[in-house]
Specification:
single chain, alpha/beta, 7-stranded mixed beta sheet, elongated
């Protein structure tokens, strides 16, 4: 006789299982029983809806195999020799648990940005993102785009849904926090679609009864880790490189930039992404990042054209690019900087000492009290620079060098790197007209290494 033996859910787990929201998140602290309830909910859906196509994802395959493939094989009695007791078969070729009713639970992993591409074009009736804060916002959004009816469910419609299990911290912390904790929704995001159930180790009756040492180990963690892992404090982000970032201080609504303010352009360029930013300096030492260009898959000449189009007549005092843009290309014999120059963009080579550059950037992001008594920062981002604002708080410390920021996931590094090139150049406040010795000259269309103003 085939029977799935599920454990009796704790009250918080029961709420998670009963959720009718399109997107449901569960967790908040270590030991809350997230993985168990996620596996069991996936099995319930597979049995309840014949033909359901379900995706279960972890960051790495090893984590997936150790934490889910093995326990789910035991739950579904995949190793049973008696076929009448077996609930499902594990298909190693397709890496999925196949049920007799046509349902499948696919076990997937997504370690890097490119790994998510293997799921594009697929349709899953339900998706479970395990340890969701370990995925980038880009990865999470891609998976959410795959959450649509498969067309294979029989015996009545199945409401599509995505489940997230997660703890504070990780590269996707800010995105998950915005949606489920802060409930700060953007256009086309409906509040009723999002539900969050906070679970603490105190809710896990088994651990509380059988493993008091685990509770003690959580209590003995350093304060920031204890707040996150023991109490599920989402305002404490372990590993965040720019802990200085405060949306209410560092982000503002766009305003008309005064014509006399000095303006700069800085970029980080690669075929995978062009991240360009226009920055204006006021009279008081504050810089405003007021315009963004963020676009992938552009060859050099097309990237230069996009920049020229986006500039839209701004008078740029200096354009800054990373040093590797001066490396000569094997196919053309020209450097990227030369191709930019041929398209009317004269670049200055940025300083690229990562450690000192990040320290400079932290100094710029540090808050202080201004002449009016307001809490402000030396660098402020217009809210139309969406990708930069998205990526900055996601940047993590490098595991091997606590003075450096992590280079992975690579997708989130482009914007922060560009701003690092800018602040490393020691930008100065705009001088008032009466203090300038000379009127700024018109654009210099020469091959001199320095141009005062670029009049695009």
């Amino acid at each position: 006789m085939r029977r799935v033996i599920l454990h009796k859910p704790y009250p918080k787990q029961k709420l998670f299982m009963q959720s009718k929201a399109r997107y449901t998140a569960y967790g908040g602290a270590r030991g809350g029983g997230k993985s168990t309830v996620a596996r069991e909910k996936a099995v319930i859906l597979a049995l309840r809806y014949p033909g359901a196509q379900i995706l279960f994802v972890r960051r790495t395959y090893k984590e997936l195999y150790d934490n889910h493939v093995i326990p789910m094989s035991m739950l579904l009695k995949c190793k049973k020799k008696n076929h009448r007791e077996r609930i499902a078969n594990f298909n190693e070729t397709h890496n999925c648990f196949a049920f007799d009713n046509g349902s499948n639970i696919f076990m997937g992993y997504c370690d890097s940005e490119k790994d998510v591409l293997q799921y594009q074009g697929q349709a899953y009736d339900a998706i479970f993102l395990e340890e969701a804060t370990q995925f980038t916002e880009f990865q999470i959004r891609c998976f959410m785009g795959c959450n649509r009816p498969s067309g294979l469910v029989r015996g009545g419609p199945m409401r599509v849904r995505t489940y997230f299990t997660c703890n504070p911290g990780g590269v996707g912390h800010m995105y998950i926090k915005r949606l489920f904790i802060d409930r700060d929704f953007e256009e086309d995001e409906r509040p009723e679609d999002y539900a969050f159930y906070q679970a603490l180790v105190d809710d896990n009756e088994f651990i509380m009864k059988n493993d008091p040492e685990y509770i003690r180990s959580l209590n003995n963690l350093p304060e920031d880790m204890r707040r996150a892992h023991r109490y599920g404090d989402w305002d404490c982000f372990t590993g965040q490189f720019f802990s200085e970032f405060r949306r209410n201080i560092h982000v503002c609504k766009p305003f008309q930039i005064p014509e006399e303010w000095d303006r700069y352009f800085v970029l980080d360029y690669g075929l995978d992404m062009l991240a360009g930013y226009w920055i204006a300096a006021d009279y008081f030492g504050r810089e405003y990042v007021y315009k963004e260009l963020y676009e992938p898959n552009l060859i050099v000449s097309d990237a230069a054209q996009r920049i020229n189009d986006r500039n839209d007549g701004d008078r740029i005092r200096r354009c800054i690019g990373p040093p590797d843009m001066w490396n000569r290309q094997k196919d053309t014999g020209k450097s990227i900087a030369e191709i930019f120059r041929d398209n009317g963009i004269y670049l200055h080579r940025a300083e690229n000492d990562r450690i000192s550059g990040w320290l400079d950037m932290k100094e710029h992001m540090k808050t202080y009290t201004d002449e009016k008594g307001d809490t402000v920062s030396s660098i402020i981002f217009f809210d139309n620079c969406k990708n930069l604002i998205r990526c900055l708080p996601q940047l993590q410390y490098d595991d091997r060098n606590p003075c450096d920021a992590a280079k992975d996931p690579h997708e989130i590094t482009h914007g922060p790197d560009a701003i690092r090139y800018f602040v490393a150049g020691r930008p100065t406040p705009t001088q008032r007209a009466e203090k300038r010795k000379n009127t700024l000259p018109p654009a210099l269309r020469t091959e001199e290494p320095i141009e005062e103003v670029m009049d695009w």
